[in-house]
Amino acid sequence: MGKKSISLMKLIKRDKYLLIMFAPVFVYYVIFMYIPMPGVLIAFKNFTPGHGIFGGDWVGLQWFAQFVHSIYFWRLLRNTFLLAFLPLLFGFGIPILFAVCIVEIKNQVFKRFAQTITYLPHFISTVVVAGMLINFLSPADGIVNTLLARFGMEKVNFMMEAGWFRTIFTSSEIWQSFGFSSIIYIAAIMSIDPEMYDSGKIDGVSKFQELWHLTLPSIKPTIVILLLLSLGGIMSVGFEKVYLLYNGATYETADVLSTYVYRMGIEGQNYGFATAVGLFNSIITFVLVFTVNRITRRMTNMSLW
Amino acid sequence: MKKSMLDSPHRPYVNINSNTFTTRKSLSDRTFYGLIYLMTIVAIIVTLYPFLYVLSISFSSVEAIDQQKVILFPVGFTLSGYKMVLQYQELWVSFYNTLWYTVVGTVLNILFTCLAAFPLSRPRFFLRRKLNFFIAFTMYFSGGLIPVYMLITSLGLYNTRWAMVLPVLVITFNVMICRSAFEGIPNEIFESANIDGANDITMLFKLAIPIIKPTLAVLTLYYAVYHWNNFFSALLYLGKQDLQPLQMFLRRVLIMASPEVMQKMGGSMSTSALAVSTLQVRYVSIVVSILPIVTIYPFIQRYFVKGITLGAVKG
């Protein structure tokens, strides 16, 4: 034991500068990442702000039971799933198709222009995107309703109708992400061995055949990994966009777990209950990511972590 | 092609056949390229039109907007919307705040990311595996919204500028990217520096950081965009209006269309003129807020492909 502590001292002395370097990072992780972790315990407690997270009575699974039996349970689960699944269903193929377009464009100026324009929405804040949607779709002065009226159609109060929320959310998600998501596919296509294309040309293969039998099969691993990654995130739809776009009239199709946690916890001060709902969501997400990682490892011999 | 034409008198049928074959093939390929260009042009129009429309409204005269004449390009060019928005105090305060959060936040982010990544990249560091797990664990487990919120408030960070900066001092995924970049530096470089008597801190700042500059450029971009667009932290931790960033100001103008804000900007006007000018104020605010990103972004665009593929390197 004496020997071990001596060698440990030696190691500390040898790596002292690395330890000094990491020290502030360590402090950061302890305070902002690790200290809140036991906070999940309040999901099992009758929390009152005065007593801190270790005070208050244990209530077991009361908050979870209350949530599972609440009338909002299935609605929240369904909305959380659909608002991640619909953009995936309708939007997953678009970046692949667009990447093929970009790679095939011969005119370099046009190519650069197309890339610059379509990557841009990725860098626009959620507030601006939500703000543009609300203003474009406004029944009073929005361009969409102006055009509808001009073509003699009925005006629609899009943001106040629950039936429209999924369409608006899904299409804006796709609009904002398809260009930027194509980058990784462009990189994958560019890394295909050019000799494979040359031998195809000698055989007189058409561009359609080349796309179907050479390009797409070559980037299949990339496609599979990205598909699995997005499936892992299917129960963790972002808070901001839903929060900015929804309102009382559209909760039926718009309210998701994260917005519900925010309303119950931050606005309603219902800390124990909100933490329980948040923990429920984290557990589902964790199980999904874990499962997806196992499948990926089996399919591609590659681990996500 | 030329050769087959020379051959043609001898083998007319074969020649016709091969000709139809080549035209059919090139027809198919022409369709292919036609579709490629068509889809790209549709993608550009769909992406560009909302921005163009916002820009056009922001420059159009109030009468033209009122008569709903603006569909594509500005009608009756005017800068009055900009004059109204730019003299509005609250916009500048929130602009300054966002600038502060972005600059201070990004500088600290890059510093802490390097401080975290460098020790984790040194093969001989005796705590390397343990500390790697220590930070990676936080990617899969966190206290969640409410416990973090309670921590920030109990630390007294509520309604201070630091609430926008300290809780996200590093993003663990970016530390992983930075670590991979440090690991990519050949070991001989460090060994020779070691012989010259340089310690790890000198090595990091004098040797390693300059070498991985391209990676750091990408990370700077990601961190800076995160801070510029950060809305959630402000929603949670900044109740005081004079600390709020641009995104909170935009939310009041665009989404809540706060009548009080509109009244202040519109000044004394008739109600119908006010209604139209508030519409213009909203669109001008969008232009003003995304202008910095749109102007800087084409210059850093070339780093993107690199940045995205960096993430694919072993995580």
From TrEMBL, chain A:
One of its GO terms (biological process) is transmembrane transport. Its main location: membrane. GO terms for cellular component: plasma membrane. It comes from the Bacteria. Pfam families: BPD_transp_1. Residues 77-292 form the ABC transmembrane type-1 domain. The chain crosses the membrane at residues 17-37, 81-105, 117-137, 223-246, 271-292. It is found in: Cell membrane. Keywords: Cell membrane, Membrane, Transmembrane, Transmembrane helix, Transport. Belongs to the binding-protein-dependent transport system permease family. This is Protein LplB. It comes from Paenibacillus nuruki.
From TrEMBL, chain B:
It is found in: Cell membrane. Keywords: Cell membrane, Membrane, Transmembrane, Transmembrane helix, Transport. GO terms for biological process: transmembrane transport. Its main location: membrane. Gene3D superfamilies: MetI-like. Residues 95-292 form the ABC transmembrane type-1 domain. Pfam families: BPD_transp_1. The chain crosses the membrane at residues 32-52, 99-119, 131-152, 164-182, 203-225, 281-300. CDD domains: TM_PBP2. InterPro entries: MetI-like, MetI-like_sf. It is a multi-pass membrane protein. Belongs to the binding-protein-dependent transport system permease family. This is Protein LplC.
